Here is the input.
Amino acid sequence: MYIELMTSILHRLRHASILLLGLCCALAGPASAHEFWMMPQPFSVAPNGVTHLSLNVGEYFNGDVIAFSTQYVAAFHHYGLGFDHDLLGHVATTPTVGEFKVRLEKPGTHMFSYDSHPNRITLEAGKFHAYLHDEGMDEIVKQREAANIGSTPARERYRRYVKTLVEVGGKSDATFAVHTGQRFEIVPIDNPLTAGVGDTLHFTLLFEQKPLANALVKAWYLHDDQTVMIRARTDAAGKFATNLPYAGTWMLSVVHMIPTTDSTEDDWDSLWGNLTFSLKQKRVR
Here is the structure.
């Protein structure tokens, strides 16, 4: 695990490289807009309080809000202690940029999960291999070269699987560790909502409900014009640990890629996992 600190100059240069903005960002492929996350505003509310959920796409944890509509949302769930509410029927059907307003009545931890519809992109070999290297998937490059297709374009079909945690009434419970059953999922082992700066947090990464080994996970933190990124690899049991040095909003992101087996239009399926939460300054006792 190590930390990279990108200066404001690098941050602005990379952010300027985003090719499509607004609604078009949702259709942008991994080469132009890497991360995709759900953000609640705020992360903590009083009982019967309201938070506003937004879908965001961009680079270095700085991006643009896209439409919270069924054009992009394939599945959307709200979890709390003892319940799982399917919210897809409440999602707008028109692609208007905006937020999803939700009232949270019960004190405790609330979790929201989102699955996207698939999107497609074709990348020339150099860009595809650079993207694979950045996401820790050099093995795919080796597979392409072994198959003598290392110089050919790659057709990719990608889906997003994101989650976020919200605290109600200053209370926390075991909802943070609920398995949503998403195809690709970051599951906390330790409670991020009761942890504090400097604590080591443990997580499990699941692909099709099974631990995924040797995946590169990135933890992102943005403050002013500086982005902190911490990297970790999952072990043989799909577990990874990270020590987060700042209070506030953190995002975990990870990508997994497999050969496509059910389509003649695509060569590879990529799955993008994401989890956002707010870390306290001191551990809650």
Notes: Confidence is low (pLDDT under 50) at residues 1-28.
